[in-house]
Amino acid sequence: MKKKPKIYSHSRISTFEQCPYKFKLRYIEKIPPETQSIESHLGSTVHATLEWLYKEISKKKIPEIDEVILFYTKYWENTIKPETVIVKEDLTERDYFNKGVQFILNYYTKNHPFDENTLEVEKKILLDLDPEGEYKIQGFIDRLVYNKATNEYEIHDYKTSNSMPLKEKIEKDRQLALYSIAVKEIFGHDKNICLIWHYLAHNLKIYSRRTNEQLQQLKEETLELIKKIEETEEFPPQKSILCDWCEYKDFCPEFGGTSPKKEKQIKLNGEEDISKEELLDIW
Predict the structure, then answer these.
(1) Which of 7, 123, 234, 267 has the fewest CB atoms found within 10 Å of its own CB?
(2) Which tens digits make up the pLDDT trace of 131-146?
(3) Within 10 A of 265 (CB to CB), how many other CB atoms are there?
């Protein structure tokens, strides 16, 4: 009987690299996040708006900018949660909302009339990392384009963070590079792929390309990292500047918290009785 494939994502791998304890809570103990950061909400709202825009364009209709802002506004209002965390005390929810409006305005003005030959938005990819197909990478491409002028396929990704990465970081980016392997498997390994990041806070695009040799090396390194994750037995917290934005901060021992699974275990060792199913879930 063929083994069920183990499916990873760039996000899952990055979480382990960022903080093994967060990885454990999210992916092993499967504890849902307690909170959502306002930055995360901004990012998801902008992504949803641009996805809607290009889907409308695929129907041969270019929405007016007012329609796009209206969609953005409704999505923001319908998905904002009361527990959304704003870390920066000098900013309000309205500040972040307005920031997103500016992102959309700038993007719309810069890219209108949107004649880049977009093939798909939010395209799902599933990439085999090994010949047996035991390990796979799953992800979603924000926007896939075929550029007729350059005869290249383009993988577009939207970024809403204020920080701009160094060139070295872009050249080592794993996410879009892995996606490009999947695109090559669809359209041909001889095809050229251009990776494009839209840094919306700066109204800039950053470009990068990879050779087939670089992509093969990345594939092998990613598989090795996944196997390292699977062999890991200890998942210590790793403090960093990102902790203030972490959805699991209240559960982190570095900040006086305890995993909910651990709390269940403590209760079990005390007086509280629980079901067999809960006991199995603890372990």
Answers:
(1) 234
(2) 999 999 999 999 999 9
(3) 16
Rounded to the nearest 5 degrees, what angle is found at the Cα of 178, between the Cα atoms of 173 and 183? 130
| Consecutive H or E run containing 208 | strand 204-208
Q: How large is the average pLDDT for residues 238-262? A: 86
Question: Which one-letter amino acid corresponds to residue 218?
Answer: L
What pLDDT was estimated at residue 269?
Answer: 33
Residue 177 near residue 195 (C-beta atoms within 8 A): yes
Q: To the nearest whole number, what is the mean pLDDT of the chain?
A: 90
Domain ranges of the chain: 35-111, 118-209
Enter the tokens of residue 250: 């209240």
CATH number of 118-209: 3.90.320.10
> Which value, to the nearest 10 degrees, does the dihedral of the CA atoms of residues 21, 24, 27, 33 take?
-50
Lowest mean pLDDT among 40-54, 196-210, 256-270: 256-270
